[in-house]
Design a protein that fits this description.
The structure holds 2 protein chains of 2 kinds. By secondary structure, chain A is an alpha/beta fold. Chain A is built from 14 helices and 18 strands. Chain A has helices at 71-80, 99-112, 135-140, 156-165, 192-197, 205-221, 233-244, 255-259, 281-292, 308-311, 328-339, 344-351, 353-358, 421-426, and strands at residues 2-10, 17-22, 25-30, 40-43, 48-51, 53-58, 83-88, 116-121, 145-147, 172-175, 188-189, 201-202, 225-227, 249-253, 298-299, 374-384, 403-413, 416-420. The two termini of chain A are 30 Å apart. Chain B is of the alpha/beta class. In chain B, helix 6 (164-177) crosses helix 13.
Chain lengths: 428, 337
């Protein structure tokens, strides 16, 4: 099968080009490529063409929590957001902490996924923070990274062993840094908002104290380490210093921490409850500064689907987490390119080549001979997001009803069109 | 209660049905009572007027009225409470309403029904008002949002967030002594972090112009509390200096087990209100407490018994009057249905 994409802007080129794809591979890139009669054509006039996005922090819930999301629904949602690769976290039911479960999970991926799903495996058995999982075996069988996301390792001796043992695999360990004693019982950011609403707070120090400790273990072991979803100014400062010290540390932030603050919680909106929590406006600014100065390497969604019923509980009992795959591009493009003045080149690296580098994947490029994993974007398309009209099985988004500017119009994975915006919109 | 000379007692012979004006209208159009922050001055004035009438009815031991004969009030208490629930029940009965007390432990809530479904079930049964207490902050607002205008939700306490009827009865009690709230110095002492009473009082009394100082163990003061418009102190003494009213809060004894305070004896030493400490307050200062009191922990036994200073019994009596007033104002406008 061949596909011709016409008149799209392939960055960093400033002039529209045509792109021909055959059998999943980009075969030709140039001007005025001839159309053959049998070929499917996409008119990409006025649109940007980038490598498909890579989300290094997704929860697809499939194993065991298919009411929230499945690999089918979650990967379609990812495709709708321009993602062609997602790294999924291991906190499924059961936890992906051994080779048999991983093999079963990979079979489900083969059966259902419309884009590439790369599994992260648990660092410790059952995410218990005690015994290491069979990391080498898991890596040999396709685990791309390790993380105890959601149940962060509290014991530094265990973390030290994990970082040392990970050398056998060459894979990155991803840290959701949180001191669980400091955050215990907390629901939202410790702040005037929490005080007024009568909700227990999660102080920023729950994150910064954990990051500071973990940085010292990275300094001790020398192994590469990645901090996911930084939420506060102090975390950016610590990571910046660690990088200046020459440590092999990287970091990502979520679209929601860039776009929202604790003030957006309003009257107990459970769709604004996530961990780490929405912080202050000053924290938001510090994160944007961290992106601008290169402290932060990537944007990751922490797409965390939950059912309506779960999120209709009280603020205290509703689970943490929001969905984010379908809105990630528009929200971050608005914030970082339009408002903060980041260049296209630097912006798209946050969603493509930087996460690829951290995960040690081949650098995504648009040129002849490369895999045709692409997002075709209309950066000026205005639309209103409604999670109930969305692709994910879950609806728990604080951005429901928000007007967004910029939309992924087509997503191409291995030469196949896996998402077309027009189709969704016709019955929206 | 008769120990105090109260200002502006209601005109003799006034009844609830004599009430009129914009405040009454606003109450009757109000969907719910979730907290004190959205009450207008007209509503507050009408409430005081209605509470005075109710208070006089109670003290004269008048027979129950039949004003809410056609209303059913459900007391839905997910958290144990003897006082507030009894107070609401007496208030509703004195107005002639049918009262439904829900035994939560044996209801379907224990079987996993959501709070919204329980409210909907009561609505379907024809209940006109739900008096709800729940341990989760925001639970009253959440149920109100789902229920809409079809019945009245009266928040009888949601987590640490709000307890509007307690604040309103405190306001009524204070206003009987000092009709003008503006400029009054009010101190609130104790565990502020976990106190819905403190929050609702702060919102109401600071809006009315009171100067509020709070004090408590630093571990029981929530972060950025001053953003609520109060002055925050770690020690009791500066907070009660020159105070006209000192409200002390209940200390849950498990706070000590949770490591939030070192010991009850240290708490007693630092934060217990007694006659010696009260000497720092204004010459005729009053002591208040939402109850139940841990005697000699929050207030000394002797001060709690000092009828010239302690308003605790008055607060309890006024609780019934204010809740009668609230139920009447919220439910009287709906007509007979």
């Amino acid at each position: 099968m061949t596909l011709l994409i016409k008149n799209g802007l392939v960055l960093p080129s400033e002039k529209p080009q045509d792109l021909r794809i055959k059998d999943g591979i980009i075969v030709e890139l140039g001007n005025n490529l001839e159309t053959t009669k049998t070929e499917k054509t996409i008119d990409a006039s006025g649109m940007l063409i980038t490598p498909g996005f890579i989300d290094m922090h997704t929860h697809l819930r499939d194993l065991g929590q298919q009411d929230k999301e499945t690999i089918a629904s979650g990967t379609k949602a990812a495709a709708a957001g321009g993602f062609t690769t997602v790294l999924t976290m291991a906190n499924t039911e059961p936890v992906i902490d051994n080779v048999a479960i991983l093999a079963f999970y990979k079979q489900k991926i083969r059966d259902q996924a419309v884009i590439e799903v790369l599994p992260a495996a648990a660092v410790t058995k059952g995410l218990q923070g005690k015994e290491l999982s069979d990391m080498a075996g898991l890596a040999d069988n396709g685990a791309i990274a390790f993380s105890d996301d959601g149940m962060p390792i509290q014991n530094l001796a265990v973390l030290r062993r994990a970082l040392e043992y990970a050398r056998l695999t060459g894979n990155i360990i991803i840290s959701h840094a949180e001191d669980r004693d400091l955050s215990a019982g907390g629901i939202i950011h410790e702040s005037a908002v929490a005080t007024n609403l009568g909700l227990a707070g999660i102080p920023w120090a729950a994150e910064t104290a954990a990051i500071a400790r973990e940085i010292e273990i990275v300094r001790l072991t020398g192994s590469p380490y990645h901090f996911t979803h930084l939420s506060c100014a102090g975390s950016v400062r610590l990571v910046r210093q660690a990088k200046e010290d020459g440590l092999s540390i990287t970091a990502d932030v979520t679209p929601h921490h860039l776009n929202l603050s604790v003030d957006d919680i309003g009257n107990y909106r459970t769709c604004c409850k996530m961990n780490p929590p929405l912080r202050s406006a000053e924290d938001q600014e510090a994160i944007i500064e961290g992106i601008k100065d290169g402290t932060i390497d990537a944007i990751a969604t922490d797409h965390a689907p939950h059912t309506d019923l779960e999120k209709e509980q009280t603020m205290a009992t509703a689970p943490f987490g929001i969905i984010g795959l379908e809105t990630a591009f528009a929200l971050t493009y608005q914030k970082l390119v339009r408002e903060a003045g980041l260049s296209h080149e630097r912006f798209f690296r946050l969603l493509t080549s930087n996460p690829a580098r951290i995960l040690q994947l081949p650098e995504p490029k648009i040129k002849a001979g490369e895999k045709a994993n692409l997002a075709i974007i209309n950066p000026n398309f205005s639309w209103k997001y409604d999670s109930h009209q969305g692709v994910s099985r879950a609806h728990n988004s604080p951005f429901c009803g928000r007007s967004l500017h910029g939309k992924v119009m087509f997503t191409i994975f291995q030469g196949n069109i896996v998402f077309t915006a027009a189709e969704r919109m016709s019955h929206a | 209660m008769p120990e105090h000379t109260f200002a502006n007692a209601s005109a003799p012979g006034r009844t609830l049905t004599d009430l009129e004006g914009p405040g009454l209208k606003q109450w009757q159009q109000r969907s719910h009572l979730l907290d004190t922050d959205d009450l207008t001055l007209e509503e507050l004035n009408t409430l005081l007027e209605a509470a005075r009438i109710c208070s006089s009815l109670i003290s004269k031991q008048e027979p129950p009225l039949s004003l809410l004969n056609y209303s059913t009030v459900a007391n839905l208490f997910y958290e144990n409470s003897t006082r507030t629930r009894s107070s609401f029940e007496l208030a509703a009965r004195r107005l002639g309403a049918t009262v439904l007390n829900l035994d939560i432990a044996s209801s379907s809530v224990a079987k996993g029904e959501t709070i919204a479904d329980t409210a909907k079930t009561l609505l379907a049964m024809g209940v006109n008002a739900i008096v709800q207490r729940h341990s989760a902050s925001g639970s009253a607002a959440q149920v109100a949002e789902i229920i809409g205008n079809s019945l009245k939700i009266i928040n009888a306490g949601d987590g640490w967030h709000a307890h509007p009827t307690q604040a309103l009865l405190d306001y009524f009690t204070i206003s009987q002594i000092s009709p003008k709230i503006k400029g009054l110095k009010i101190a609130i002492i104790g565990d502020i972090t976990h106190s819905r009473v403190a929050r609702s009082n702060i919102r109401l009394l600071s809006k009315l112009g009171a100067v509020i100082d709070v004090a408590g163990p630093p571990t029981l003061l929530p972060s950025e509390l001053s953003a609520m418009g109060v002055k925050v102190h770690d020690r009791l003494e500066p907070a009660i200096e020159g105070a006209d009213f000192v409200m002390t809060l209940r200390l849950q004894l498990e706070r000590q087990q949770d490591g939030l305070i070192p010991s009850l004896s240290e708490y007693r030493k630092l934060y217990r209100l007694d006659s010696t400490k009260m000497a720092l307050a204004a010459p005729q200062a009053y002591v208040m407490h939402p109850g139940p009191i841990n005697r000699d922990l929050e207030i000394s036994h002797e001060l709690a018994n000092d009828q010239k200073r302690s308003l605790v019994s008055t607060q309890v009596a006024n609780g019934v009057a204010v809740r009668m007033a609230i139920l009447y104002l919220l439910l009287s406008g709906k007509g007979k249905n």
